[in-house]
Amino acid sequence: MIFSLLLPLLLAPQTDYELLREILRATEPLEAPRGERLPLYLWTAQSLGTRDEAALESLVRELDARGMAALGSWKPDDPESLEEALRLARLQKRLGLPISVNATAATYGFFDGSERTAHVDNEGRPLFDGSFPTERKMGCPFAIDHRIPVIRDRIRSAVEAYRKESLAIHFLYADWEVDGPLEWNGAWESSRKCQRCRRRIPNIESFDAFQAAIRGKRAELQKRMLAEPVLDVFPDALVGNYAVYPHDGTRYWYDYFEQERVEKYRKWYPEFEETGFTFAMPVVYPWYRGYKCTGFRWTRRFAGSRPRSRSSTSSCRELPRLRRLGPRPEAGSESRAACVREEPSTPRRALRR
Ligand SMILES: [Zn+2]
User: Fold this and answer.
1) Fewest Cβ atoms closer than 10 Å to its Cβ: which of 39, 103, 255, 312?
2) What's the predicted TM-score (pTM) here?
3) What is the bridge-based pairing of β-strands 238-241 and 169-174?
4) Ligand 1 centroid to 139 CA: how many Å?
5) Are 212 and 351 part of one and the same domain?
6) What is 137-196 written as a DSSP string?
7) How far does the centroid of ligand 1 lie from the alpha carbon of residue 117, in Å?
8) Cα separation of 313 and 293, whole Å?
9) Are residue 250 and residue 226 in the same domain, yes or no?
């Protein structure tokens, strides 16, 4: 009995290398060349888990045959990571493949926990916002400009290493999320208690004014720490950050670190246009509790499940607290928001990344 429970675990991939091999086993080479289209960037393919040159080349070739790319990761706390990323870039150049980079680790964090980065309350005391599910001490969006050169120089020095070897970066992304200015959770309340924020946002009692100021600042940080240092050297590179994309002024999704509010669609700020980013990273999420709603058939398809028939486009009946929202999607369409909670928000479990 115990063995039967353990067997799937024993058979499951244990290392990044084994996981990638498993992905390669479970997928097939493209039937037609990828051409100019971008490859798939898999979260899993950010560490190839081998330093063996022959194994590395084999992995990269097999991923490419399936339309997938390998990413080099920059980690400021791990000096060897840049050399690993460069090794991959040299290989990608030799094979004629796009050089791709994950710069996430290098972008954290603007909020370094120092008192200097805190809000300032009416009595002049430092104030941090503890409403986000992170150990990072979220502070004042207008007290972190001194962190820009720190982060920017990390990116710049890594880019310079690529430039020295004529390794032109084609694609670079970051997953910079719970850090820097954010308007959700208790951020508005904290800023209203802060002398500095009130000075910087005279109309702070208006959430729209608060959001515009916060997102404008966030866009500026992303431009100066990430877009500029890459594009100054490699102007043709695709540079972007998670969840930053052109949109119609509304946002339909809640991120894992956001407390839900009453509204399901929210006013959204045109952040992308101010960042200087050269590619967009839209989010295809249900509302938070909808993660379990299999009405999002594309999720099931990605997970390898068989497509659902029109008569069962939503599985909301499996979740009694969910009800359908809006018209039933057309057969074969990719419904992006099929379910909504009926009950008021309740505190949810803090999630960490
Ligand atoms: Zn403040």
Assistant:
1) 312
2) 0.79
3) parallel
4) 7
5) no
6) -B--TTS-GGGHHHHHHHHHHHHHHHHHTT--EEEEEE---SSS---TTTHHHHHHT-HH
7) 9
8) 10
9) yes
Averaged over successive runs of 10 residues, the pLDDT of the chain (353 residues) comes to 44 75 93 93 82 92 95 91 95 96 97 98 98 96 98 97 98 97 97 98 98 98 98 98 96 82 86 98 68 45 39 35 32 32 33 33
Residue 147 CA to ligand 1 center (angstroms) comes to 15
How many whole angstroms from 142 Cα to the centroid of ligand 1? 6
Length of the chain equals: 353
Single out the residue in 257, 274, 293 at which a domain terminates. Answer: 293
Whether residue 12 lies inside any domain: the answer is no
End-to-end CA, the chain:
33
d(CA 351, CA 166): 41
CA atoms of 97 and 78, how far apart (whole Å): 25
In angstroms, what is the span from residue 348 Cα to ligand 1's centroid? Answer: 26
Residues 52 and 85 in one domain: yes
- 119 Cα to the center of ligand 1, angstroms: 4
Q: How many domains does the chain have?
A: 2
- 73 in Cβ contact with 34 (< 8 Å): no
Give the Cα separation of 185 and 30 in Å (integer). Answer: 44
Chosen domain end from 269, 293, 317? 293
The parent domain of residue 308 ranges over 294-353
**From ligand 1's centre to the CA of 276, what distance in Å?**
26
